[in-house]
Write a structure and sequence with these properties.
D-Maltodextrin-Binding Protein, domain 2, 6-stranded mixed β-sheet, single chain, alpha/beta, 2 domains, about 325 residues
Amino acid sequence: MSKPEFTITCVATDRTRLFATGEVDVPGCKIGMNFSEPEAIFREALNNQSFELTELSMSSHIITTARGDAHYIAVPVFLSRAFRHSAIFIRSGAGISSLADLKGAKIGVPEYQQTAAMWVRGMMADEGVAASDVTWHVGGLNAPSAGERIAIKLPEDIVVKPIDTDDTLDEMLLTGRLDAIISPRVPASLLRGDPRIARLYPDLRAAEVDYYHKTGFFPIMHALALRKDIAEAHPWLPEALFNAFSKAKRMRQDEMALGNVLRISLPWAAHDYADTMAITGGDPWPYGFERNRAELEAMTRYMHADGTASRKVAPEELFHPSTLRLVD
């Protein structure tokens, strides 16, 4: 009997390219890779369920799970993680120097439901600024966009306004119509060196390390997910995927430790690797449900508080049952 064939649609990273090169396989099946960017992947997966196996926004997955119309089930393989202190941009001279100063602000986001924005709202909430304390403006960062990837329904006390179709968040921040932007991508004006825009945290690394020490969180952005019909037809597949992606992650981490020839084009990569391992206790990118339970609990709590999730989701609901016991 021939092996079943599946295609994984995801972002090309050191954690996923090994499947394209054939250095890592998934026992019991043949895997093809379809590389794309997150915005395109999520819209297609969530609206059309086009992909069998896909990288999926955790915030959108929590939203659909909460309301009972999720077409995908996740594996606790977190394909994207990122500290989001670097995603906060402010208008220079607006008197904003901390998260607490964002109370009453007008804040732009590419999508209210975006996982990056969720994490920043969670950080704000921990500093006493609720989602209802802010007016949210949704639209394209540097060019007009289509807005939210899927429809969301929010409580009446949370105000979210779409911006004009020919406007951008960057231009609104420059002209004082916004006080801040939360975006994983950088506003074009800041890249040009425009002094009217600045980052909230001038020393990003220090802020992120301090956050990690306080919380233990390296914020989860995206997970590997299977369409539910695929998981039902091949119940062995979620565990096989977890084991294969864990192997790929370990291979790339071991490669970064090599010092004879630099494997990535950063001159101080070896020093950064050593520093990172010291800070994180030897594994900066943990997979597995139990290892990430506290962080997942915080995510579901933040999303219920900011109105995106219609109920408080139990973290276990997000993942295929066969993967909950797996340890990386």
